[in-house]
Amino acid sequence: MELKKLYDPISPSGEVLDRTTVLNSPAAKKIVADFDALAIATGQPAEAISAPELFTELIKRGHLSELRLRKVVRVDGVPENQKFSPKLIAQGQGEGWLSVAKGNVIIHGEDGDVVFKVLAIPGRYCRHCGEKLTDDTTGSAARKHVAEKHAGKVSPDHENPSGYAMQNYYDCKLEANHG
After folding, report:
1. Helix (H, G, I), strand (E, B) or coil at 42
2. Alpha-carbon torsion 90, 84, 9, 53, what sign?
3. For the chain, how far is it from start to end, CA to CA, in angstroms?
4. Full-model pTM
5. What is the pLDDT of residues 63-108, one digit of tens each?
6. Cα angle value 161/144/125 (rounded, 5°)
7. Which of 61, 93, 167, 176 has a CB 3.0–4.6 Å from the CB of 115, allowing a cystine?
8. Cα-based distances in Å from 14 to 8, 31, 63, 66, 135
9. In terms of Cα–Cα distance, which of 111, 35, 34 is closest to 78?
């Protein structure tokens, strides 16, 4: 899945401007011409200036005051199953384009919300029975669970022969894609 943050150009007076209008403005066209002239003068190949570079230059020259992050993102290639890191969850919540509610991770997309059902949260899990185990810094609670509930049994997960594993992501399944 690809998430792309979206920004709105903000005028020096604080007004939200239309992105396309800004990119086609006389000020933007002058910057493109300046970059082309600089390339020719220095014998460099003239390359198209990217939109982020153009916005940065418009801010430097005082035509814009900032780029403000929108509370929605562009979402492409939504899979059936998705793993989210705690860092991404915290970042999305902090920026306002993601929320967690009622056992769901909700991405606020440009074209509508994408809802994932949380199947498992970060933590230790028993590979024998799937139970979410008590988290501690040493794993002693997980070892105790395996010894008491699954004594003498070989772990069904050959990658985790201890019978438990530490999961560092939110394991999710697509529930609704309104985008």
Report:
1. coil
2. positive
3. 13
4. 0.77
5. 999 999 999 999 999 999 999 999 999 999 999 999 999 999 999 9
6. 55
7. 176
8. 11, 22, 12, 9, 48
9. 111
